[in-house]
Each structure stands twice: as C-alpha cells, then as structure tokens.
Amino acid sequence: MIRNYLICLILILSSLIGQAQVVDSMQVDVVDLVVGRKKIEETNDVRNKRKVHFSILPAPVSAPGGGRVIITSINGAFTIGDPDKTNLSNVYLLPFTDFSSRYGLFLRHNIWLPNNSWNLIGDYRLSHYPQYVWGLGGNSQEFERSLVDTDYSRIYQTVLRGISKKWFVGPGYALDYSYNIEETEIGFISNLENYPVETTDPSVASGLTANIVYDGRYNALNPPKGAYFIASYRINAKAFGSDTDYQSLFIDARKYFPIQRSKGNILAVRSYYWTILSGEVPYLYLPATNWAPATGIASRGFQAGRYRSNAMIYGEAEQRVQLTNNGLFGMVIFANIASASEFETQNFKSWKTGVGFGLRAKLNKYANTNLALDFGFSEDFWSVWVNIGEMF
Questions:
Q1: For residue 19, pLDDT beyond 90
Q2: Which CATH architecture has domain 2-388?
Q3: What sign for the dihedral angle of Cα 316, 317, 323, 327?
C-alpha cells in the first residue's frame, strides 16, 4: 500500500496555470521537472500570464470495511481582484469510488471577492459512505465497533462580510442528510439502537449558523504566517426540516509561526472545541474525530468517528521544513491529542494521542501549493492521508 502512495509522487499529472505575478526564478515545482531545464523560462512566461491554476491528483486510500477508494482531487486556485489586497481563492472537486461500497462527489470552495469584501465558504457532498462507529465517550473499546452503511449528503454554505481588514461575520446554512441507514458487523451491542435518540431513516439535521471569523492568511492552501479563528453557532430546528431541535458550537483557532521564513520552516498549531449546547442530537451528527465542520483535515492517525460524544477537544502541532533550497521537496512531523467527553457531560477524562510524519512536493510554485503525503499513527490504527495543500 505504501508503495502505491510513493508511486503517486512520480505519476502525478498536473495542469498548473499561474496568476499574473512574478515568482522567484530559483523556485521549482513539478511542472518544471516535466518540461525540463531548457523549457522552464518559456513555460514560466506562459504561466505568468494566466489567472487560474489547476492541480490534478489521483490517489488510493483505505476504505472502512476493506478495499480501496480511488480519489481524483482537482483543485483550482485563483485571485479575484488585486492580488495585493485579495486572498487566494480555491475550489476542490473530489469524485471517488472503490468500484464497490464507496463512491461519491465532494465540492468545496473558499472564494474571496475583491479587496476581501466577502468570503464564500462551501462544502457540498453526495456519497454512499459506509463508516465504522464505536461506543460513546473518550474511552470506547474496539469490541464496541459496528459498521453503519449509509448514503450521505451535505450542504454547508457560509457567507461572510468583511467588517475590518481581517475580521468577518455572516450567516450560513448547514444540512446533514443520511438515508438508507443499515448497521452491520455488530460486535457487542447496536450503537444506533442503544443511543437514547432514535435514529430515523432518513436522519436529517438542518439549521442556520451564525459565524465570526478572523483570517490573517493570504493563502489558506499553504499559510506562510498569520492566524485563523472561527466561532460558529448552529441552530437546528424542525422548522428548517430537522428531525430534532438542537444547538451546537464550534470554535477553531490556528496559528502559523515562521521560524526560518527563507527556509520554509514553519511551526503550525491548531486547537478546536466542538460541543452540543442543548437538544437531542442524531447519533451520526454528534461531535466525532475526523468530522469537524471546518476547512482542512484534523485527527490524522485516528479512524473517522473513532471517538464520539456530545463534546470534543482537539489540539495539534506540526513542524514544516523545506528540504531543498528550490522549494521542491519538504517534510513535516506532527502530533495531536483529542478527547471526547464522558457522554452528556463536559468531563474530559480520556485523552488520545496521534503522531506522524509527511512528505511534500511542490505542485505549483505560483500558488505555493504542495502535494501532501502523510503517515499517521495512533494506539490501534495507522493510515495514509493525501491532500493538495497543507492539512490545515
């Protein structure tokens, strides 16, 4: 399996078109390797005149229940307006299938209008997505595992208005919709049937969000410095089509410390708190590892949904190092810690840790976009994560 991921570093096909700005001539990316030294200058002239750049990444990953998922990640990055006053926008399209049990289409966007006057953030998913689930709380055991087979759709859309240079506020809409729900491979008891709130089929959580955001990053794909903060309050109500009425709060903070900016040496830290404030929550929409309602990837080293409860705390630190002076290759080491509360409390007794390392290859020197290939490990699990851009 590891060999397949390493082969991806060599077989990546990228169509990369740069925005109208000058890039350090010493910087090198995958396109430069493909065209060769003799054509780099000619290719750079063409890329410098373009407004949008695309990256294409085919990558195999593990799937719950066995088998492989083939993911083709297509990313487009561009700037709307003056690049000196407007953050870099990006759009992800991720169709995937394992030709058996898992398939779907994800569309994510983070669009900045001129002068950062508005920020549009969206996460749209349509999938057949079997996933393992465990018992509740921070110390659930492996024998409690069962497999929940379900079709899943998501519509998250947030519209933020700039109120100062880096602060934004605005509303959003959030829909989680699961149907054709079937629990199998029950090891001890049925996690769905044992949960106090009945899991209906379909299971719907629909509500409005109120958001306040600080964003001091120019490039969210690979932040060289700055900070990010979001507080999102979600109100799910039967009036909006939700099965139950409940409210939740999600707070996420990130900071990027350039230690040696010229060497691309950056310390990145992140922490979030996700909790249910009141009401009855469907089992599948409780706070859980790898399901945080935020941009980026968290909980590397943990299986999706491994720990689940009414509240969760998470922290992570990652050291990013540039290995070559031309910026082509780099690496990271990271560690994270997570705790799901004792169910129906804010008591965080059990803390779980994950560690790992990763490799980086520059896909696009104009957008400073990397191919990220990470290996994460926890107490009873390990896996590989592949992404275009940094994980957070």
A1: no
A2: Beta Barrel (2.40)
A3: positive
